[in-house]
Amino acid sequence: MKTLIAISLQVVLLALLPPLLLGIINKTKAWFAGRRGWPVLQVYYDLLRLMKKNVVISSTTTWVFLAAPLVSVISVLLAGLMVPLGPMAAPIHFTGDLIMFAYLLALGRFFTTLAALDTGSSFEGMGAAREVTFACFSEPALFLVLLVLVKLSDTLSLSAMLLSASHVRIGSTASAALVMAAVSLFVVLLAETSRIPIDDPNTHLELTMIHEVMVLDNSGPLLGAQIYASSVKLLILAAFLLHVVLPLDPALVGRDWGIMLAGLVAVAVIIGAVESLMARLQLRFVPTLLVAACLFSGFGFLLIL
Amino acid sequence: MNWLALVILGVIAFVLSGPVGMLGRRSGNGWQWVSAGVAVAGGICGLVAAFAVLLGSLSDTLTFRAAAPALTVNLRVGPLSAFFLIPIFAIGSLSSIYGLGYWQQSRHPRSGRKLRFWYGLLIAGMAMLTLCQNSIDFLVAWETMALSTFFLILTEDQKPAARQAAWVYLVATHLGTLLLVALFAILRVISGSFLLRPLPPGQVGMGLQTVILLLATVGFGLKAGIVPLHFWLPEAHANAPSHVSATLSGVALKMGIFGILRVLTLLPARPPAWGISLLMLGAVSAFWGVLWAIAQHDLKKLLAYHSVENIGIILMGLGLAVLGEAEHQPIWIILGMAGCLLHVWNHGLFKSLLFLSAGSVILGTGTRDIDQLGGLAKSMKITAAVFLLGALAICGLPPLNGFVSEFLIYLGLFHTMARLPILSLTAVILAMVGALAAACFTKAYGSVFLGTARRVSHRAHESGPTLWIPMSLLAAGCVLIGMAPSLVLTPLMHATASWSGQPSPGLASLVPVKTISILGVGLLAAFGAGWVGQRYIFRQGRNGITWACGYIAPSSRMQYTASSLAQMLLRALGPLVRQRRCEPQISGVFAGPGQFETQASDPVLNDAVEPVWRRLRSMLAGGQGFQRGSIQNYILYMLLTLLILLAFTLPLAMLWKWLF
């Protein structure tokens, strides 16, 4: 019964919470800029409005363009079901689910980049080129983080390894490795969810965007699906990061759900702060940053060998 | 029932399929159907037998005695050889059907019959290779395969590129054969017989065994296309007719892997260094292959480089299995070997599928230059759909078959964490290879099939049923293994047990195949539901033009090209991939038309093999004087040889004594 509640709670959170994080990020940015900013729930209103709008579909496109937002949403939700959002195991967990997790994210990305190329626009082509290039560097970083966690927990399931990461004693070598993995994971999170300093979701210049420019031709529900998919990605990577950083105790379920939720808000605030305090990197330095992330988790792995 | 006899029947059918087709007229299409019919019948015989052997874990032997013991032919089919026979017969038959439409006799009166003759021999040679128990027969089968490949690459011998590719291939394959002759000679000296039997442990030193494995790795590696021995591969696969490329890439390369597996079963020693070296060699091949694939402009060359990548992945699984034997880790053996073998099947399926679809593109448009194609998904719906499926599979994305085999190898690599954690870092290389492959196929699929038509693709047309039926069958195979991996567990376990010679722990307990199936079905069901549901959510969809910042007359020349898509990645990876750039000279106020070109030429071929080859040729040029082409000279040479040989029989010692 308890697990049933936990699972349904996770599913509901996974489905409903993500847009809130975007709202919090925007509120934080507004606060830094001295503005009042959007309401925190604005992204929900946007999504609802987009679902009701007409779609304009470029005559250049094929069925791939229509399929991409759908595949993004499905694959990212399925991947999300493998990450424990709270102090309990995720709804789906099995040996090797970490590989499935990484490849589901890759599946969504593959279709999004294809849809971008489907429009035949140069801008979207540029976005796709950037996305695939940076993915080639963020994928190894993610796997190095996974290696650290596998080594520490001695299991091959995301739920088990993320929950056991909470048992590491503070001050041990393992905790140092975890901190390095967390830094690396934070960079991966920023890259995967197209945040400053890698990408600027709010820029108005098509020439410089990455993710936003890939979905430039999407409108109505299609655009809504893409925004929703990227917010879900933000949520699951943030939850992933929190499990690496926070010492949770499965015995204290009630307390730890609270801690996790507070943590998610904190991650959103930190992302907002990073966006407010940093400028975007030049595109050619982004791989360097991602390689640095690889090195961080790589050294973390070497620490615990 | 002797299943081996049925396999041999299949082989005979493939040998006959070519000559049967020669009965007809040069310009008529009738007999090519008979020829393909014979090939398919043979393929079905072979498949039935191979599946029976593999699923039942049986083995059959046949011996054809000859007067001289060295000429006695020993054949045996077991689970491991049956495992390799299945792709040979399956892809051999499907490609024969495909050839009916792709290489119609009436359109290729000069080369059609020749092509089918050598194609039948290629399939027969490969099938025999898996059966031979005797090193001499093995070499005969090997050369049959190698030489028919040479003639198949030469199908369009009027094209200089094909001649060049075939020439480089011939040199490479003979270099490999030379090493194999040395290898089998050593084995003959050690074991005292031509039979390929496991050497008894303790008889042969480690050093000699390492030499044997080294010879096998280089000799068979030249066929498999392991980096840096892959230099002949991209050109050869690009210049052969597409269904031949499909067979060469999908099946023939695996014969190199089969050879290495076969030699490993003969050697008793298992030092960990072997496993680690094979694993590293695999990682380097995988990375190098995919890296150079991205830089290609030629669709078939791009696919050929991906074969190098996939051979690398297969080799990683093999290395892990060998390491598992060295370290007595049954889990590594089963996961590594199962991953290696399943990837042999999977790569056979999706790479043939991709080459056949590329052939369909070539037939429809007349070019294989990616930068001239575009927007084909509208005119070639089936080809586009199956190519996308193949692309998803080769990138290892769920829920297709590539994911399953890579999953096995990943799991195996993660399992090394307990004993040799540093080796699990190769999983990171595999992850990067996966991301690079996705980038490469985004480029390939995006620029060939999506967007607007570039120069030539506006007159493209979909290919006929003889092309799309084999393609769809291969695609169905990819989906089937991806969605129901539990189907392949039994074959994998039988083949693995037959290789390692010991019962393996159950794969089903190590790999959550059921969960993978459920998630795959769930993914597909959700997609289907969403696809249908989309119609109800969308409000009257309107067609417009692509947003170009307000510009309303975008043309296909404004599209992002495949080269520019790859440029950023190649620049980020810096010095690893060197491209030759020809930039236009711009001068004056009104500059004339200019052209920009990049070319990625493999450094192994251009900077290592070619200079050495040139030096070698100039060194050997002196010997050309002996080849005068007149028959008198050759008779003289024979006479001299005879005299020299006779001189050996003289009682030289007595002669010496008598003289002095």
Description:
With 305 residues, chain A is mostly helical. Chain A has one domain (2-303). Chain A is built from 12 helices and 1 strand; from the N terminus they run αααβααααααααα. Chain A has helices spanning 2-16, 18-33, 42-52, 63-80, 97-118, 122-153, 158-164, 173-192, 211-214, 220-245, 253-277, 286-303, and one strand at 54-58. Chain B is mainly alpha-helical and 660 residues long. In chain B, the strands form 2 sheets. Chain B has a two-stranded antiparallel sheet. Chain B has a two-stranded antiparallel sheet with strand order 4-5. Chain B starts with a helix and ends with a helix. Chains A and B meet through strand 1, helix 4, helix 5, helix 6 and helix 12 of A and helix 14, helix 15, helix 16, helix 20 and strand 3 of B.
What is the helix content of chain B?
A: 55-70%
Helix and strand element order of chain A:
HHHEHHHHHHHHH
List how many beta strands of chain A DSSP finds: 1
Strand content of chain B: under 5%
| Strand and helix order of chain B | HHEEHHHHHHHHHHHHHHHHHHEHEEHHH
Most extensive protein-chain contact, per-chain counts? A-B, 79 and 83 residues
Low-confidence stretches of chain B: none
| SS content category of chain B | mainly alpha
- Biggest β-sheet strands, sense, barrel of chain B: 2 strands, antiparallel
Low-confidence stretches of chain A: none
Quick overview:
The complex is a heterodimer of chains A (305) and B (660). By secondary structure, chain A is an all-alpha fold.
Key phrases:
heterodimer; A: 305 residues; mainly alpha; 2% strand; globular; B: 24 helices; 68% helix
What is the topological layout?
The complex is a heterodimer of chains A (305) and B (660).
Chain A: H1 2-16, H2 18-33, H3 42-52, E1 54-58, H4 63-80, H5 97-118, H6 122-153, H7 158-164, H8 173-192, H9 211-214, H10 220-245, H11 253-277, H12 286-303
Helix pairs in contact in A: 2-10, 2-11, 3-10, 4-5, 4-10, 5-6, 6-7, 6-8, 6-12, 8-10, 8-12, 10-11
Chain B: H1 3-21, H2 30-56, E1 60-64, E2 73-77, H3 79-102, H4 112-131, H5 135-153, H6 160-191, H7 206-224, H8 233-239, H9 242-266, H10 272-294, H11 299-326, H12 330-365, H13 376-379, H14 381-394, H15 401-415, H16 426-449, H17 465-483, H18 489-500, H19 507-510, H20 513-537, E3 539-544, H21 562-572, E4 580-582, E5 597-599, H22 603-620, H23 631-649, H24 652-659
Antiparallel strand pairs in B: 1-2, 4-5
Helix pairs in contact in B: 1-2, 1-4, 2-3, 3-4, 3-9, 3-12, 3-17, 3-18, 4-5, 4-9, 5-6, 6-7, 6-8, 7-9, 8-9, 8-11, 9-11, 9-12, 10-11, 10-16, 11-12, 11-15, 11-16, 12-14, 12-15, 12-17, 12-18, 14-16, 14-17, 15-17, 16-21
